[in-house]
Here is the input.
Amino acid sequence: MKKTIYYSLIFCMLLLFNACDTKPKCKLSPPEPMFGQATAEIEKQTFELTGMKSVETVWFVNKTKLELIQDGCELVSQDFQFEIPENFKDKDNEYWALTAIECFKLMGKNSLMLRETANVFAETLLAGKDMIEFGEDMEMAPNFFMKLNKIAANKDYGILTISLFNKANN
Here is the structure.
């Protein structure tokens, strides 16, 4: 009788612990650094991982700073925020588009993991630079999108964000 009660208590405790496990079961592995190797153009690089979200910061020798945020358990997203030491106050969309292309080229030159993808995106943006709409989702492939945003922060620098993300089928 005591054994039955003992096993029942253990079984109930296991059920309780299992029910309290609120961690999502992820299809994806945690993000990894995209700029793990040293190059002549990278001054400094940091990588922080918290669960399924990472923040990687890269300082280039040309004084451009990149903050790359990767996140996702089921669908992945990557947000590239470039702080560019230049006055963008009176620059038009074409100039910003060309700057986005140069940012992709910079990533492609300095990251083995991003090299092929960054170069393809640079070529794609160059071919369609007149059709880029900042702040709008642009479908690059089925269910895969890019969004570009720009902020002329002040006379010393501008901020360009490039978001790459998946959307679920509706």
In short: The first strand starts at residue 42 and ends at 50. Strands lie at 42-50, 53-60, 65-71, 77-84, 138-141, 144-151, 158-166. The first helix runs from residue 2 to 20. Residues 27-166 form one domain.
